Amino acid sequence: MLKTPLIIVNLKTYEKGFGNLGLALCKDMESVAQESGVCIAAAVNTVDIFAYSQATNIPIMAQHIDPINFGAHTGHSLPEAVLNAGAVGTLINHAERQIDEEKISATISRSRDSNLTTILCTADIDKTISGAKLGPDMIAIEPPELIGGDISVSTANPEIISETVSKVSEISNNIKILCGAGVKTRDDVSKAFELGVDGILLASGVVLSDNPRKILHELVLGIV
């Protein structure tokens, strides 16, 4: 179950983010979550969902699902299969796995049918407004030009965070707001929460770190 305040670590397809290395990383997340009381979730490769969900107590998420039903859909990711493997939710429309608005709507609907929590990734305010009207559980605002960089969105473009919080609240008070792109430090996290977010979505700052456990400890200090 995903709770706020929330940190989601996207393992992407990094070498350190799959198999035994990815599991060790999830174990670090579990340890820091238990010590801090902050919910830390991992968005993982589909093939690792079952193993990681069985071996840890943190929420495990899919990085993408397809809006399909049971049937002849070779090579697709079935929402019910992802849920059955142990995922509690899924990212939708990440900058590295974008889909059109029709598919976003269908994916949110199929996720809801399958009891998967939806985190819709958006790149700008216009996409955020249109996305919020589709009713996701959470929206993660991530300016694509800052993803994987060394400058956090909360530093480079704080206005996009505060405007996201404001615009989404006008549409629904039930949608939680996350931010991502370049988030790597305690100060990055602290600034984001001061701007009104409920959580953060990040990847390389943790996954590629030489000491991810230490980084996670620093990040939660920006919340607690």
UniProtKB/TrEMBL annotation:
Q: Does Isomerase appear among the keywords?
A: yes
Q: Can you name a GO cellular component term? A: cytoplasm
List the InterPro entries: Aldolase_TIM, TIM_sf, Triosephosphate_isomerase, Triosephosphate_isomerase_arc
Write out the catalysed reaction: D-glyceraldehyde 3-phosphate = dihydroxyacetone phosphate
Q: What is its EC number?
A: 5.3.1.1
An example GO BP is: glycolytic process
Q: Where is the active site?
A: H94, E142
List, alphabetically, the SUPFAM superfamilies matched. Answer: Triosephosphate isomerase (TIM)
Location comes to: Cytoplasm
Recorded hits in Pfam families, A to Z, give: TIM
GO molecular-function term, one example from the UniProt record: triose-phosphate isomerase activity
Indicate yes or no for the key word Cytoplasm: yes
Part of which pathway? Carbohydrate degradation; glycolysis; D-glyceraldehyde 3-phosphate from glycerone phosphate: step 1/1; Carbohydrate biosynthesis; gluconeogenesis
Q: Which domain of life is it from?
A: Archaea
The main location class comes to cytoplasm
**Which controlled-vocabulary keywords does the entry list?**
Cytoplasm, Gluconeogenesis, Glycolysis, Isomerase
Positions annotated to bind substrate:
N10, L11, K12, I147, G182, A203, S204
Self-association and partners: Homotetramer; dimer of dimers.
Q: Which family does it belong to?
A: Belongs to the triosephosphate isomerase family.
Q: What does this protein do?
A: Involved in the gluconeogenesis. Catalyzes stereospecifically the conversion of dihydroxyacetone phosphate (DHAP) to D-glyceraldehyde-3-phosphate (G3P).
- Output this protein's name: Triosephosphate isomerase
Taxonomy-wise, where does this protein's organism fall, top ranks first?
Archaea, Methanobacteriati, Thermoplasmatota, Thermoplasmata, Candidatus Thermoprofundales
* Gene from which this protein is expressed: tpiA
